[in-house]
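In response to reviewer comment 3 from the previous cycle, which asked for concrete evidence that the modeling workflow produces usable outputs, we include below a single protein chain processed end to end. The sequence was submitted unchanged, and the resulting structure tokens are shown without manual editing.
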Amino acid sequence: MMLQALGYGLIWSVMWNVYVFLILKFYPFSMLHDYPKDIQAAATIEKPSKAQEKAAKRFGAVGGLIIFGVLLAFGLLRFHSEQASFLQVLKYIFIIAMTWNVVDLLVMDWLIVCTITPKWIVLSGTEGCMGYKDYLYHFKGFLLGCVYTSIMALLFSGIDYAILRLVIWK
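The workflow returned the following structure tokens.
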């Protein structure tokens, strides 16, 4: 069960990384708040038009629905053919979600953003900003992510468990 959850966690991490890459490529203004303060202050991103803001919100909503729908599906796929306790479902979903949080810190933040810092990460006007090398900033984000991940795992495990009990196992 744990290896399968780790595997699904890696798949979910790839989905998240592709989603973030697409946002950075097409709607960087919507990610500015996730950068360190020096980068936010130096960024020379043009103010988005109403159409761009709408497109970013639409992309965010559709992408979010897909990503969170997949998380729900992982739990349903794992437990559809066997009765499980809420705690078993929670542990499974928690492992998937926390795998993503760890991969986000180690690969996306520390390796790609802080160590490699490719051009597609660097916002216009922020070349040379020290925030790109701020490992502690990303570690603090990871710790906050642990809280959000725990809450998310509780919520999605509850939804999965309710669907399993009321629809699938009945």
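DSSP finds five helices and no strands in the chain. We consider this sufficient to address the reviewer's concern, and the full set will be provided in the supplementary archive.
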